[in-house]
Amino acid sequence: MAQNIRFNYLYRDSGNYKKFGFKDFSNPSSKTLIEIETEVRNNLISSEFFYPEKVGIQKFRFHRYCDDFSWYEFEKIEFVNSRNQKQSINEFLIQLDKMES
Q: What is the secondary structure of 12-69 as a DSSP string?
């Protein structure tokens, strides 16, 4: 019963407009949501922000103003039934660990 993991995130611009996204991962070691969220938050900037390009998440394409931030915001982790995930949550956690703020 190895369900996949969905990493939900958002981009919030300087006008507080939000754009939501997600990335799905396999979960070969059957980690719990609590284990994953703890590891994720431990490696985020102020426990909630990350640079998408440093962890393999494609940036949204839209106009940005000069006072917008370049980081994205972690929203939540959840189980999903999706297929054929090439990257595991373990690999993603390693990328987060290597992210420099």
A: E-TT--EEEEEEEEB-TT---HHHHHHHHHHTSBTTTEE-GGGTT-PPP-S---TTS-
Residue-range definition of the domain harbouring residue 38: 4-98
Distance CA 70, CA 49 (A): 10
Strands 72-80 and 49-50 turn out to be antiparallel
> Does the predicted TM-score (pTM) go above 0.90?
no
Q: Could you give the number of structural domains in the chain?
A: 1
pLDDT in tens, the chain (101 residues): 458 999 999 998 877 888 999 999 999 999 999 999 999 999 999 999 999 999 999 888 765 666 666 889 999 999 999 887 889 999 999 999 998 65
